[in-house]
Design goal:
Blueprint (H helix, E strand, L loop, with lengths): L4 H55 L8 H7 L8 E7 L5 E6 L7 H4 L4 E3 L2 E6 L2 E9 L5 E9 L1 H51 L14 H43 L4 E5 L4 E4 L1 H7 L3 H4 L13 H14 L3 E8 L5 E13 L2 E10 L1 H96 L4 H41 L3 E4 H11 L1 H6 L2 E6 L5 E4 L1 H19 L6 E9 L4 E8 L6 H5 L18 H12 L3 E6 L5 E8 L6
Parallel strand pairs: 13-15
Antiparallel strand pairs: 1-2, 1-6, 3-4, 4-5, 5-6, 7-8, 7-11, 9-10, 10-11, 12-14, 15-16, 16-18, 17-18
Helix pairs in contact: 1-4, 4-5, 9-10, 10-11, 10-13, 11-13, 13-15
Length: about 650
């Protein structure tokens, strides 16, 4: 009969506790017997000493019989003493005195020197009496013995009571321990039963319920392990179900792709028997799947010759696969065609299989043959066309050179037009100071002649001399100022003209260069009228090409006067410069004119783009500005503009232009 784990645990606990209780009782009995014996021997020794001391005076005088009645009276009441009998023997073991009640003869073992010896007193316990024997000195130095018996009833009663109490306590402890074990195992049993029930649910496939966890003992750890295992099983089963679903979907997709593939496909076993075929095979070769399943390819009208099949299978056996081998086959109309064959090994239902892919190359090969014939005829045409193209290319090269030459002439014309405008402005600007000088010198000449006549006539007065000197001084200052202004204009013109024609690199002051350029346009600016505002640090120098800068400013001013301030009563042009870092400056040219639309802004740097086509505009001004800023001066240029919001041209220029 098999016992449950709980019953086995209780039975084992009961056996272990019974053994422990038995050992405790046995050890207690042994200790009590030892204690009783030891105490009895000690009492016997004390009695022996007391009797020896009391009887020795009488024994050495042979007067012991005198004590017979006294001793008998002393032993008559058992409650007065533990002593039950007293017998004194002489050296021949003959009794001298014998009093008290003795239930048995003196133990012979004591006469023979046996029993337990304790300080000269030999004892032996029999039933409820401790028998003792000790030597006694008699008259004439004879050695007799004192033999007496002591009652051990009280000691045994105390021992029995102690043993009884110990037994009862042990039994109570045994019962309490068994009850505790029972309750403990009952709780464990219930938890194990719950775990068993839940485990059976898991065995039946129910992984949704988690096992309850109580405490942190081994069962709780085992329960957590079961819960973790259940969760892992749930995840694993879910993953397996998803994998199964994906596998089913993959099989369905494969079957669909296999059937719907435009390329003819068949699947055969290792012996060449066809187990599956798709629709494309029927469409291409006129063989339905129902007529092919279970047959080998040599059993159906497919190969152009039996040698073709043997050749393809030989390639498969030697190389393990077929990669695009060309073979002759019979087409549905009975003609011979060509197909490219590929193969790959796979496992189907646990068995080896081969998938074959067939590509009909008949039309392609026919087309290649036709194309080859066509290529032969085309080669002659190509040679003829090549000659014609070479002639056309020569004409185009000539036209391109002419166009480039024309563009260079237009660029030079633009620069010369700018220089011509500069000359016209300088000439107009020089008319005023030179005319003033001429007028002042003529008036001064007339006044000198009149003064000379006064001097010759002798009618010169001091007041006339003073007035004449003042007129000479004013005329001289006017002539000197006008000529000085003309000299400055000529100097600026010479510098601009030299820089613009030579395009030499030098170190120049940016404020002076901008001021000279603005000065040449002052007549046109006054006619608008247009105010010019310069915000350029006086100490800002550039190591660059001043001719390029003059050309840029000329084109920007011309654009502003021609486009920005058209149909405007007045305007403002501002030129601002500031240092971006130690190597770069930003030069900004802005106006408050009509601005540009987004479409114009997109093409503003394109060559030959102008909004005044047919009105004198060439469309090269801003293209020249872009090429000079980005190419010659090594900078970058951007334009911000909107209709009615004016235009700002920002140029980032290096302080030291790159070497050309």
């Amino acid at each position: 009969m098999s016992l449950s784990l709980r019953a086995q645990f209780l039975l084992l606990s009961a056996i272990i506790q019974a053994l422990v209780v038995g050992l405790l009782i046995w050890n207690s009995l042994r200790l009590m017997n030892h204690a009783v014996g030891t105490n009895a021997e000690r009492v016997a020794q004390e009695y022996a000493v007391t009797l020896n001391l009391s009887l020795s005076p009488y024994a050495v005088r042979a007067r012991l019989p005198e004590l017979d009645s006294y001793l008998a009276e002393m032993l008559s009441d058992p409650d007065d003493s533990f002593l039950r009998y007293l017998t004194i023997l002489d050296e021949n073991e003959q009794p001298i005195i014998a009093v008290g009640k003795r239930d048995m003869a003196l133990p012979a073992i004591l006469k023979q020197g046996g029993g337990t010896s304790f300080k000269g007193v030999r004892t032996i316990i029999s039933d409820a009496t401790l028998h003792a024997r000790s030597p006694l000195l008699l008259a004439d130095n004879r050695i007799g013995s004192i033999n007496f018996g002591l009652s051990t009833t009280d000691l045994k009663r105390a021992r029995d009571e102690v043993l009884l109490q110990a037994g009862i306590i042990s039994l109570i402890g045994f019962g309490a321990a068994m009850a505790m074990f029972y309750l403990f195992t009952r709780g464990i049993g219930r938890r194990l039963e719950a775990l068993t029930d839940e485990s059976e649910q898991i065995t039946l496939g129910d992984y949704s319920k988690a096992l309850p966890v109580h405490g942190d003992d081994e069962l709780a750890v085992f329960t957590r392990t079961l819960n973790a295992m259940s969760a892992a099983l749930r995840e694993r089963i879910a993953a397996l179900e998803q994998s199964q679903q994906r596998l089913s979907e993959s099989e369905a997709r494969f079957k669909t792709l296999f059937d719907m593939a435009p390329l003819p496909l068949t699947v055969s076993d290792r012996e060449g028997r066809i187990v599956a075929a798709n629709r494309a095979l029927t469409h291409t070769f006129g063989q339905g799947a129902d007529h092919l399943i279970g047959k080998r390819s040599d059993e159906v009208p497919f190969w152009a010759s039996i040698q073709e099949r043997e050749r393809i299978w030989a390639i498969y056996r030697d190389e393990g696969a077929v990669h695009g081998a060309i073979a002759g086959v019979l087409l549905p109309d009975g003609s011979v065609g060509s197909v490219a064959i590929w193969s790959s090994s796979l496992t189907l239902d646990g068995k080896g299989a081969i998938i074959w892919a067939l590509l009909d190359l008949t039309e392609e090969l026919n087309a290649k043959r036709e194309l080859k014939d066509l290529n032969v005829s085309l080669e002659s045409r190509v040679r003829e066309r090549s000659a014609a193209l070479e002639r056309a290319n020569a004409d185009l090269s000539t036209a391109l050179q002419t166009l480039q030459h024309t563009q260079d002439e237009l660029l030079a014309s633009e620069k010369m037009a700018s220089l011509g405008s500069l000359v016209a402005g300088i000439a107009h600007e020089l008319n005023t100071p030179i005319g003033n000088s001429l007028l002042a010198s003529t008036a001064l000449r007339d006044r000198v002649q009149a003064f000379d006549r006064h001097v010759v006539a002798g009618a010169l007065r001091r007041s006339e001399l003073t007035a004449h000197l003042e007129e000479v001084r004013l005329a001289s200052e006017l002539i000197a100022g006008s000529l000085h202004k003309a000299a400055e204009l000529i100097s600026s013109f010479k510098q601009i003209a030299v820089d613009q024609t030579n395009d030499q690199r030098r170190v120049f002051n940016l404020l002076s260069a901008v001021h000279d350029t603005i000065a040449t346009y002052m007549p046109r600016l006054r006619r608008v009228p247009c105010e010019v505002v310069l915000r350029i640090p006086s100490e800002m120098n550039l190591d660059s090409y001043p001719g390029g800068l003059y050309q840029v400013l000329n084109n920007l001013i011309n654009n502003a006067l021609s486009h920005a301030f058209e149909q405007r009563a007045a305007g403002v042009i501002a030129v601002r410069a500031e240092a971006v870092d130690g190597d770069t400056i930003e030069l900004a040219f802005s106006d408050d004119g009509c601005g540009m639309s987004e479409d114009v802004l997109k093409h503003v740097f394109d060559p030959f783009f102008t909004t005044k086509m047919g009105q004198g505009g060439t469309g090269l001004g801003m293209n020249i500005v872009y090429n000079i800023v980005t190419g010659i001066m090594g900078g970058r240029i951007t334009i911000d503009s909107a209709p009615g919001a004016g235009t700002t041209v920002r140029m980032l220029l290096p302080r030291t232009a790159p070497q050309r």
